Amino acid sequence: MIPVEYIVLIAFLLCVAFYTVSYGIWIWKKRNRLGAVMIFLVAIIAVILPIYILIFREV
Amino acid sequence: MKKKTVFGNWEAGAIISNLICAKVFLDSPRLAVETAGTAAWIFTIYIAILAIIGFTVIQRLYKPYEGKDLLDIAELAAGNIGRVFVGLVIILCLGWSTTAYMRLFSENMKLISLTTSPLSFVELFYMVCLVVGAYLGMEALSRLHAFAVIIIAAGFLLIMLGVVNYIDLGNLLPILGNGAEKIFIKGASKVSAFFEILVLFLLAPFLKKYQNFRATGYWSLGLSAVFLLISSFVFSSVFPYPSSLERTIPIFHIARLIKLGRFFQRVESLFLFIWAASSLLYISVTFYFILFTFQKTFQLDYYKPLIIPFAIIIMSVSFIPSDFTEIIGYEVNLFRNWAWIVAFVMPVLLLILARLRKKKPAR
Amino acid sequence: MDIKKRIKNLLFFHEPQMEKPFILKEDSSSDGRDNSDIEKNKEGSRKKKNEDLLLLKKLEKIKLTDKKEGSDKEEKPDISKQLSENKRVIEERFSIPLNGDLIIRKFDITVKDSVIAAFLIFFDGLVDTKVINDDILQPLMLLSNLDIKSDGENILNYIRSHILPHNQLKEARTHQEVIDEVYFGGCGLYIDGLDTAFTADVKEFPGRSVERPNNELVIRGPQEGFTESLRSNTGLIRKRLMDQKLITENIIIGRRSRTPCSIMYVKDIANDSLVAEVRRRLKSIEVDHIMDTGELEQFIEDDPSLPTPQVMATERPDRVCSMLTEGRVAIVMHGSPFVLVVPVTSNDIMYSAEDQYLRFPYSNLLRIIRILALLMSLLLPAIFLAITNYHHEMIPTDLLLAILSAREKVPFPSVVEVFLMEISFELIREAGIRIPGPIGPTLGIIGALILGQAAVEANIVSPILIIVVAVTGLGSFAIPNFSAGFAFRILRFGFIILSAISGFLGITVGLVLMGLWMVNAKSFGVPFVSPVAPRTSGGFSDAVLKSPVWKQEKRPDYMNAKKGRKQPHISRRWINRDVDSNKSDSEDNNG
Amino acid sequence: MARGKLLVIFLMLAIICPVMTSCFDAKEVDDMGFVIALGLDKGKTNALRMTLQIAKPMAGDNGGGGGKDDGLPYAQFSVEAPSIYSGLNMINTSASKQISLTHIKVVVFSSELAREGLGPYLHAMVRGREFRPNMPIVVARNTAEEYLESVDPKLVVNATKYYELVYQSYKYTGLIPKVEFHDFYLSSESLCKNPVAILGNTAKFQSVDEFDLKDSTYLEHGRSSPFEGDFYAGDIPALGGSRSENIGLAVFDGDRMVGELDGTNTTFHLLCTGDFVHSYWNVPDPLSEGHYVLLDIKQSRKPRHHVEIVEGKPVIHLTFNLEGDLLSVQSTIDYEAGDNSMILESAVESYIIDQLLQYLDKTVNEFQSDICGFGTHARGLFTTWAEWEAYQWKSKYKDATFTVDVNFKVRRPGLILRSKSSVTSESGSDTQ
Fold it and tell me: Counting Cβ atoms within 10 Å, is residue C157 exposed (0-12), middle (13-18) or buried (19+)?
């Protein structure tokens, strides 16, 4: 089972990612495509990496 | 948002010196001993001279590009692609040193005082400083450095003075240690100890004037060379050569020896103050420059929304290496052997390219 | 709805609004000032700065004119020539006859064979009735009958120049002016047939006379403190600072209370943009009533969340004067015995007025002790906790065993112990102030003693902790600035929590965070930790320790004053005179 | 701005949440039992027998005597365990407090254990952060347990202070070596130096009647009666005070004990290493047989070592600069000035050289162990570490030859400027 604090943490991560993506969209609208793509990338990494470490690795 | 932050030589020098010298509290003295044996102090002088020569070359070439940082120069040299490439390289290097230092410092903290706390708990403290530092920006960080670095340096020198009774100059003999070849030829790549000078090339727009840039570079290189020298000198003269290689945290072992009568013993915990402060500043500054480089590379308007995602990434990456020795291995054998290419060769190449591209760069 | 909006705000990116922070820059109009090295370095960027400054000024102008349009209505002369009309307006404005203490004295003036009706208004209790009788009523009613030497003049001039011997007589064009004066202890004189009223200053407020300052005591130095009346306060400042360029600008704050305030500065020292900023901030305050500079401080400070005060409140005229000479701006407010001085830096709140009057070795000793006191009041309980909970090896063994046996019977963890003692100490402190009369301090001491003793006897706290808390308390009393003491008392609790969490690491993190916070703050455009961070010339030498008075040649660099130098390089000229009197004399004269 | 602050607050909350659940490392002082002395013996049932002295909390409380029952300021525990840390675990099963080693003042090894090699224990002590680097190392000639027990609790009010002070006595007696764990460990690993430890034991005499001199080394030193240093620990004919005695040193080769030296040799060991501060010496009177001159000897300058390698063998030159104050001249010969003082000085010099050579001879021939660290000076003769390593100093030390040079000067005659013999009724007129 996934412990409760993991769920809280993952929710937090998702919020952060959501915020970051919204920033990326804002940048995209300002016609900075490369920047927006990089921000999306950052957002994705910022969710996937911690989750991978939380669940699949024992720290 | 385009507020121009300008600060003086003092602040910039303090930042660079702290960046270079933070490794004194980690493993720099031991590294010097590993490479050069009893001649660690000669080795330290040697790499300092190499770094200063490298910087001289760079600052000569840099002269026409007053107030431009490495990314601007990369853009001049190779256009957008150049800027993105250089930006990514810088982000990777700084990202690595931030994660590695964060992990190493927290691991050491666990070794010394918080033995039973989980690693993530210790790293959270670093995270908070990192986020707040990046949020308040370079101006606040530089000002904090202006006086914090003095306190750190004073504390460091006090530790060094405290063990003066234990210094045995005989431990510096044989004079050439591991042999001239190992020191001067194989050791040359260890000039990467001064890798953090790279940050100075990013600081350039804050410094504005070329003279400031040059003065800051020489001052901080000189000062940090002195501190590195003092640390490796004291360490290798207090601990004789083969045994000194055993010590995980050289300065901590030195601090343990301090004894002033019956009352002041085991004051190494006090040393934790300057140690933690130095590492916190190091991590905050490199983290800020990751964001700064990212912002500049991809021409974003704001970096602040990216602070937390980046902090999360940094923290997660620092958890990836499974143990202490693994991360030391990466840091010492991989990064500190090749970082000089990024810190010294890359700027030189870029500057030469930029000169070739445009004989007269537009101001 | 609100919560939904907040969450939305939190989750979506919004472009931050641009805020233009006020940064104190070097003044463009500065000439004849000596350029130190740093200033020379900045020469290149000066042009740019000037542009910024111009822009800033333009912005201010726009705002000022905005303001003016709003208040234009009041400025229009509205005094009628009809006395009865004026009387009606005044009665309406003062809510006569509801208002009991407003006196309206009607009388007739005989001028050049004609009898002119007039009336005088003033508040009973705010004015000196003798002055009104002797200098206003008597001449108007009696002396106007005397022979008239000149004629052909209008009555207004005639009355002003011949009849009224009172020393402070102003003409008012609007009722509002008259009313303001009347509220500030003046009397208004309306004369039939004139569309101008006279106001005369006859104030005699009930209030204290000049006494010793209550809170900022010194042993060596002047013993006068400000009182609650504006003019005596400005007078106390002028009495000391006999400088022709000392300016006192009047300004009124509070839409209803209309409290008179004064901005004081030395014109050719204080930076113009600083004065303009102070004026702008004060004028922009929209509030009904304002009672004390304590409130005013909160209206004008830069960062309300910063724990330390960003405005200096002092009751010592000499302190204000010395700060004015450094190029700062003082704000005096009617009704408050504390004068605000801006901008301040962290040093100013750490040092007392006495430092300057004592010989420099003495004051340096005091300064070092005060820094120690600050560190103790901020960190001592935290360090005690960290050592006893995390770093046992640091304590000398004998002491450790003493602590150990003292704690053996105490049931609480030491964090709880520390909190318990700290809170009860704060309690004693607060109670000590509120207890009426002279028993207060005595009771405080006795309370502390008995409480401490009993707590130890009852094994609730360990005796060593009492020492720690007591020393901490002493330390917080040694901080000269009242508000700063508060700041460190609050921060102390944060440090206690941090050190309970993770020992010295927590304290270090706290210090770094606090450092970042402080360093980021500004007081009226001056970085708060100024001479140290950012470092300006001579930052460390002057910030921590004081040099002898004759070596304090320059005004603080961060003030960007118009004149950087306070005294020539050689201010003790008698020293050179012995060596080579003629030469040095002529040189100094030239310089 | 406000949103940024909210984020920071959120982050703070995220941190505080785990924090509120646990303060991971916080340990109250009164939850810990602080060990002040640790003794290690060979166990009967297991590799080690550990003896711990744990300070009692009440010891400092009432100013004096301490606990109610037996008046001991500490509680002594013994346990047999395979290693130090497992021993701690075993003691924790009976002791109510968690045992902390951060305040250990002394570690005592039994000589039996020391002769087998201390390597494994030393490594454990370096690796753990709790041990102090400046605690002294004692080798007990019998068992460590007995030695620690003999620290007489009735006279020792504050055991930690006793341990802290008693091992500093080398500064004024010169009868024990200066030993810190830090040096001890480094020397045990060093290529150029061997460690020494303080030699301790329980006094063997219980009453005056038992006094004898059969274990004294005075004959070895060529004396007719023993000087203060001519004993090993435990053999001194003395009573009273703490029954634990510290005199002499244990010679190690690497981490293995190879022999013992008595107090007199220890003094000369201190002289050679430069740790000698001052002590009182008896020197045979050069002009009057059977009398002694008492001197307070100090080191006026650190000794100079000069090492050469001649034909692969070390040749060591030592130069000592000593000074002394006259404390007593039994023969009442006027040694304060003139030729007499020259005679005394040269006599002292030759006496010291003689004794020194005896001591050095012992280290070379008997123990073949460079406990003075001459190797540290020999290192300078090589340019690289590889060459030095190849020379193998420790094995070459047995071939070492010495030349010793001593400069001794009587500086102060004490409070008496001119010695005069006491005047008896018979000889009174003669002396005048």
Answer: exposed
Give domain status of residue D7, yes or no: no
The answer to whether residue D19 is domain-embedded is no
Which range of residues forms the domain containing residue D335?
Answer: 278-420
Mutate one of B312, B313, B319, B327 to test the A interface: name it (highest A CB count within 10 A).
B312
Within a domain: residue D14?
no
Pair (D90, D217) in one structural domain: yes
What's at C435, amino acid-wise? I
Q: Do A19 and C11 touch (CB under 8 A)?
A: yes
Domain that holds residue A8: 4-56
Same domain, D92 and D225: yes
Domain check: are D320 and D224 in the same one?
Answer: no
Q: Do D304 and D191 share a structural domain?
A: no
Catalogue all structural domains in chain B, each as residue range(s) with its CATH number: 9-357 (1.20.1740.10)
C348: three-class secondary structure by DSSP: helix
Within this chain, do residues D38 and D82 fall inside the same structural domain, yes or no? yes
Amino acid at C227: T
Strand partners, D408: D322
The residues with which D360 forms a beta bridge, in sequence order, are none
By a Cβ cutoff of 8 Å, what residues of chain B touch chain A? 84, 118-120, 294, 298-302, 305-306, 308-310, 312-313, 315-317, 319-320
Q: Report the distance separating Cα B356 and Cα B335, nearest Å.
A: 30
Question: Which alpha helices (H) appear in B39-69, and where do they start and end?
Answer: 40-62
Contact D217, D262 (CB under 8 A): yes
In 3D space, the residue among B265, B229, B267, B232 whose CA is nearest the CA of residue B250 turns out to be B232
Q: Do C392 and D6 touch (CB under 8 A)?
A: no
Q: What tokens appear for B132 in the block?
A: 């707040």
Question: CATH number of the domain that D319 lies in?
Answer: 3.30.300.210
Q: Are strands D98-100 and D32-42 parallel, antiparallel or unpaired?
A: parallel
Domain boundary (D260, D276, D292) is at D276
CB A26 to CB C13 under 8 A? yes
Pure H helices in C76-225: 83-93, 129-131, 138-141, 155-158, 175-183
Verify that D287 and D271 share a domain, yes or no: no
Q: Which of D260, D223, D272, D282 is nearest to D362 (CA)?
A: D260
Q: How many domains does chain D fold into?
A: 2
Please tell me the total count of domains within chain A.
1
| Boundary (domain end) residue, out of D250, D276, D302 | D276
Does any CB of chain B come closer than 8 Å to the CB of residue C17? no
- Cα B326 from Cα D49, distance rounded (Å): 37
Give me the count of residues in chain C.
591
| Domain-embedded: residue D134 | yes
Q: What is the DSSP string of D207-255?
A: SGGG---TT--TTTTT-SS--TTS--TT-----SS-SEEEEEEEEEETT
Alpha carbon distance B56, C59 (integer Å): 46
Q: Are D287 and D153 in the same domain?
A: no
Say which residue the tokens 């009523």 belong to.
C137
Q: pLDDT tens digits for chain C (591 residues)?
A: 577 777 777 677 777 666 666 777 665 443 333 333 334 344 444 444 455 555 555 555 555 444 444 444 446 777 888 888 888 888 888 888 888 888 888 888 877 677 888 888 888 888 888 888 888 888 888 776 665 555 555 667 777 777 777 777 888 888 888 888 888 888 888 888 888 888 888 888 788 888 888 888 888 888 889 998 888 899 999 998 888 889 899 998 888 888 889 999 998 888 888 899 899 999 988 889 988 888 999 998 888 888 888 899 999 999 999 889 888 999 999 889 999 998 888 888 888 888 888 888 888 898 899 889 999 999 999 999 998 888 888 888 888 888 888 888 888 888 888 888 888 888 888 887 787 777 767 777 777 778 888 888 888 888 888 889 889 988 888 888 888 888 888 899 889 988 888 888 889 999 999 999 888 888 888 888 877 777 776 656 667 777 888 777 778 878 778 887 878 877 788 876 555 544 444 444 443
